[in-house]
Amino acid sequence: MTCPFLEYRSEANDRQFDESRAYCGAAERFVQPMRADICNDRYELSHDQHCEIYLEHADEAPTGNENTGHAAGDDA
Ligand code: SF4
Region labeled Disordered — which residues (predicted)? Predict the structure, then answer.
């Protein structure tokens, strides 16, 4: 399962890229490459155990499509 806050965007906050990059809907910023393994629950990592941003915002987490990596209801 990926983090429900994980999105893929090619632009946000006056930054623009040719390809979509991992974007954190909780922190409202692009995810640092080192953190992307946590966002995607790769290896032994888990967003709900190892990401302090997720833990701070867990009660705001989108529900309903947590397996897609896209935030529910966020079409901004
Ligand atoms: S794991 Fe953390 S950094 Fe990654 S999308 Fe979720 S809240 Fe954001």
Answer: 57-76
